[in-house]
Amino acid sequence: MLGLILGAAVLGIIIAAMEQGEFPGWGKMVICVLAAVVPAAIVNALVPPELFFIGLAVGAICAGFAIMVTCGMTFQRSFVAAGIYLAIQVVLSLGLRAIFRT
After folding, report:
1. CA 16 to each of CA 24, 38, 77: distance values in angstroms, whole numbers, following the listed order
2. Model-level pTM?
3. Per-residue confidence (pLDDT) for residue 42, from 0 to 100
4. Where are the transmembrane segments (predicted)?
5. How far is 60 from 95, CA to CA, in rounded Å?
6. pLDDT tens digit string along 16-32?
């Protein structure tokens, strides 16, 4: 739950900065993050743990479409926002993997 809220906050900040406006709203951002997390979890369940970024990439593609629909952004801008979100997720995942490596 905390990851969902933090993901929505990060994505909302990215979109607000790109649109030079206000935060798009928690409901829209939660939908976009769920659109990214659910496909990523499904793909990550099917691939080895070392290839976690493949699931994140699939999630970012799905998030790009969700951002386009919910926030009214153009195709290119929504996928740029999703790409930035993907980069942040990869860095966080690698950082957590390094911290909890035993």
Report:
1. 7, 23, 12
2. 0.83
3. 95
4. 26-47, 54-75, 81-100
5. 19
6. 999 888 888 899 999 99
Q: What is the 3-state secondary structure (H, E, C) of the chain?
A: CHHHHHHHHHHHHHHHHHHCCCCCCHHHHHHHHHHHHHHHHHHHHHCCHHHHHHHHHHHHHHHHHHHHHHHCCCHHHHHHHHHHHHHHHHHHHHHHHHHCCC
Amino acid at 91: V
- Average pLDDT for 42-62: 90
From residue 30, how far is each of 34, 36, 57, 67, 86 by CA, in Å? 6, 10, 18, 11, 16
How far apart CA 48 and CA 22 sit, in angstroms, is 39
Q: Average pLDDT of 85-98?
A: 86
b/e per residue, 64-79, with b = 16+ CB within 10 A? Answer: bebbbebbebeeebbb
